[in-house]
Structures are given as structure tokens and as C-alpha cells.
Predict the structure of DUF4806 domain-containing protein.
Amino acid sequence: MITIADLLLRLTRKQELLQLVVTDIKESLIKMETVLLRNHQVDVETGDAESISLKFNLPIDGVEKLKEFEAYFIENEKAFKKAVHEVSQLGGKHLYDFIYRAGRKLITNSFASKFSYLGKRQKESFKILKMNNLLIESAMHLHKQATVKDVEVEISKWLKRAAERAKNEKE
């Protein structure tokens, strides 16, 4: 026969287990909140948001936004290093896959179609841009075995296909 004392003992044990589970969940939530806050914190020194997506409303779609992007990273090397880390987090199994993913985030296909890597065929040179350096350093950060030349070749391929991708987006 089960007594009231036995039932209370069982109930107390279950309550203790539930409290442990709630404590574990609370600790996990605190850790997740800390990570989220760290990823979206504002740099106290410069007052700039860490995320380049937020700072520049990416992808870039015009000359004025590109000039602002370029000037910011030319003047602020610390922010450039943070951007390299952020862009490299986009990942990609292969080098071209990374360039495709990062390029799509940074610049629209229609605007990218106005560039060639070396500036040939009446297009602007992409090679001279700080955005090019951002892609190269991010790619080399992610793909340790890649050389600068490897990355340049993949950026060039990506730029060549920009007009085609822009056309497909409109259809």
C-alpha cells in the first residue's frame, strides 16, 4: 500500500529533477544570449556595428555605396580584419563556392557585371578595390591551402558570370 509519505517523496524527487532540467536550460540560454550579443555588439572604440551587412546595407548596388564601402575599409584596418572574419564565416566547400556565396552577399550581380578583374573590355577594374582584398583574405582564411592566384582566378570567373546571373534574376 502506497502511503501519502511515499507519494510526497516521489513528488519531491520529480520536482528536484525538473529543477535540474530548468537550471540546465537556463544556463544554455545564457550561453546562447552571450554568443548572440557578442556577434552583434557595437565596437565601443569606433561606435561601428561589427556586421558589415548592417553597416552597408549589403549587397552593394551602386557607385556611391561602393565608394563609401571602400573609403571605410581603407581608413579602418581593424574593421577590415573583422569583416574578413565575418565574410569567411559564409563558408563554401570549394573556393569558387565560397567566392559565389561571398560575392552574392557583398555586391549585386547587376552591379558586379560592370566590373572585370583587370578592367578590360570597357569595364571597371575589380582588382584595385578593397572589396577584392576582402574576398582574397577571407578566402585564404577559410581555405588555408589556397594561393592569391587561385582566389583571383575564381573571382575573375565569378565576375564573368555576373551579367548572366543578373539577366536570370530579371526573368
